[in-house]
Design a protein that fits this description.
The chain has 23 helices and five strands. It is mostly helical.
Length: 626
């Protein structure tokens, strides 16, 4: 399909790539800074914060010099910060809906700046703003992140890919905190270095405020809109259809519908022409008169009139059909030079109808894109009321699935340094590897995009659950070297989880009740996440820093969720019906991808009335239509 966009006068260029680059860079630099907690906590402890409860001998875990009271207070900071990040969509979702993405994104920038400044200025021996800093930074991260998702609507055929890129920047943003740690250590690990590294970076984040004020629209993008940069360096949104977009090479089903409609109209008008011609002939003969009749021979004017009438009807039949077909596309504002259709483009045979001409326009009621199939169960789920959707099996299953997986993924992030130290990582080499590897989540984008677009809900959820199980099992192993694999599995599973969350929720339930459902789910996620502090406290003080029991419990708890993944896989392949792709708010992702009829045993196809020239054909002729 060739997508040609004709820019009107006064427009400099299409600005969608520019705003996409701005959003991606913003996600990397500040979208998920709080995920760099491991590096940030090392800087906090190096400055001697929260050492008041440690004895002079050095209270430790398994003989190491780790202060239990200090680690407990750090665990509290992590818990309240990650609670703000998880619970943030409940509050900031309303801000985004009512005030728009520009204000929301700028608010996220200022919250991130304030959180970094408070962290840099705080000390447990003086001004102690650590708790407020953790809450504000976590809230600022998710606020900035939420304000970027609408940009994916500018790329309707690649929304899943664009969303995955945003999530890769969000989850990998923690590496920036590790970069700050390296700068802090290179500057001598002094109090001044700690303060100015964090405060200085806050001003780098602040550079996005004027850029967002300039580039970000006041209202969220919608599917079918484009973003343009004018000659006066201002931006504006327009409907793509208003600029005369031409769609070429449509799908086989759409080609068939267009060709069948055109051929049916042609049949009707040809029959009309034949009827008129026959009527004219009868009127010319008028009983037993022939061309040898002297009266008939003398009435030349009458004969010529009837013959010209019949010929004119015959000649104009095709032209009338062509004009009517072309007229449907002229409604979109396309110029007549792009709408020319010759007589030979009107298919007369079934084979022509199956293929279609690549310049043939679509009627207004046919959406472009591949014909795909979805379970009737999920199609009807999107049409239900909020209460019906909330009480559905899918809603409860998705809520429990993501709440538990998010909890254990974040619990490992918050206790990663402690778990590695308990296995012998005293020089923090593996902890540093964990800070770095999150930046490589982008390499998993093709894999999660393939799972979402080609394999559907069940396999995608099953892959996430399997990675969580493997991660928990590897965490329970005492060997330090194997923790490198633990970190890799954890990184991939965490990225898959965040990438699929909004994509699956939006595709499964639609966008009519999307905000309310996500708000409720994030409320449970945030409240349940508060259990991280007592669980960490229990591991430090009761289990003496040994997290093995908790790791095994994670595997036991996560394993039964595989049953829900199996049923999602089963449901999405039952009672399949055809749907139109790219319906904007209703279907943001092609969750089942391209399917062939032979692979779908229970396909329910819409009835299409065949034109006259197809009557009598055997069913084998219609088989290749899909």
């Amino acid at each position: 399909m060739v997508d040609s966009l004709i820019l009107p006068p006064g427009i400099k260029s299409d600005a969608r790539v520019g705003i996409l680059v701005l959003a991606i860079l913003g996600e990397v630099l500040q979208g998920g800074l709080f995920f760099g907690w491991s590096a940030l906590s090392i800087m906090i402890t190096d400055e001697g914060n929260y050492e008041e409860g440690c004895d002079e001998a050095g209270e430790g875990i398994d003989g190491d010099t780790i202060c239990k009271s200090q680690e407990s207070k750090l665990a509290l900071l992590w818990t309240v910060g990650i609670f703000a990040l998880n619970f943030g969509p409940v509050l900031m979702g309303f801000v985004l809906d009512y005030l728009g993405p520009k204000f929301t994104a700028i608010l996220g920038v200022f919250l991130n700046m304030l959180g970094l400044i408070l962290f840099g200025a705080s000390s447990s021996n003086g001004f102690n703003g650590f708790v407020a800093a953790a809450i504000i930074l976590g809230l600022g991260n998710i606020t900035f992140h939420l304000a970027q998702f609408h940009i994916s609507s500018l790329f309707p055929t690649k929304r899943g890919l664009v969303t995955s890129i945003f999530v890769a920047g969000f989850t990998g943003s923690g590496i920036m905190m590790y970069v700050l740690q390296l700068i802090y250590e290179a500057a001598g690990s002094t109090r001044a270095a700690y303060t100015w590294v964090l405060i200085g970076y806050s001003f780098i984040c602040g550079l996005w405020a004027p850029l967002l004020w300039w580039m970000m629209p006041n209202e969220s993008f919608k599917v079918g809109e484009i973003y343009l940069l004018r000659n006066d360096w201002k931006f504006e949104k327009r409907l793509r259809a208003d600029l005369g977009r031409t769609y070429r090479r449509t799908t086989a089903m759409q080609d068939y519908v267009v060709a069948a409609n055109a051929a049916r109209e042609r049949d009707s008008q040809i029959q009309q022409a034949n009827n008129i011609a026959a009527s004219s002939q009868e009127r010319l003969v008028e009983g037993n008169k022939t061309s040898s009749d002297p009266i008939w021979a003398e009435d030349v004017d009458r004969r010529v009139h009837f013959e010209e009438e019949a010929e004119m009807v015959r000649d104009n039949t095709t032209e009338s059909v062509v004009d009517k077909v072309a007229g449907s596309s002229n409604q979109t504002g396309e110029s007549s030079t792009h709408q020319e259709i010759q007589e030979d483009q009107i298919p007369r045979r079934l084979e022509d109808a199956q293929i279609g001409h690549e310049s043939m326009p679509l009627p207004p009621d046919v959406s472009f894109g591949p014909l795909i199939f979805e379970s009737r169960r999920f199609v009807e789920l999107r049409k239900k009321t909020f209460k019906e959707q909330f009480m559905s099996t899918e809603s409860f299953g998705m809520g429990i699935f993501y709440t538990l997986n998010v909890f254990f993924q974040q619990f490992y992030l918050g206790t990663q340094r402690l778990q590695l130290e308990s296995k012998g990582d005293t020089n923090h080499a593996y902890a540093e590897f964990g800070n770095i590897i999150v930046a490589f989540a982008a390499f998993a984008i093709p894999l999660i995009a393939w799972l979402l677009d080609k394999k559907g809900y069940g396999i995608t959820l099953g892959a996430i659950n399997a990675l969580s199980i493997i991660t928990g099992a590897f965490q329970a192993l005492p060997m330090l070297w194997i923790q490198a694999f633990t970190l890799m599995f954890w990184m991939i599973g965490r990225f898959f989880m965040y990438s699929s969350y909004f994509a699956i929720f939006g595709a499964l339930f639609g966008f009519r009740n999307f905000g309310k459902l996500v708000a409720i789910d994030n409320s449970f996620n945030g409240l349940f996440g508060l259990l991280q502090f007592p669980l960490t406290y229990f591991a430090i003080h009761v289990l003496d820093g040994n997290f093995t029991v908790i790791n095994i419990a994670q595997v036991i708890i996560i394993l039964p969720l595989s049953i829900f993944c199996y049923y999602m896989y089963k449901w999405e392949r039952e009672d399949l019906v055809p749907i139109r792709p790219l319906e904007g708010e209703e279907l943001p992702c092609d969750m089942l991808g391209y399917r062939e009829k032979k692979k779908l045993p229970e396909v329910h196809l819409p009835h299409i009335e065949l034109p006259n020239f197809l009557h009598g054909r055997q069913s084998r002729d219609a088989e290749p239509m899909l």
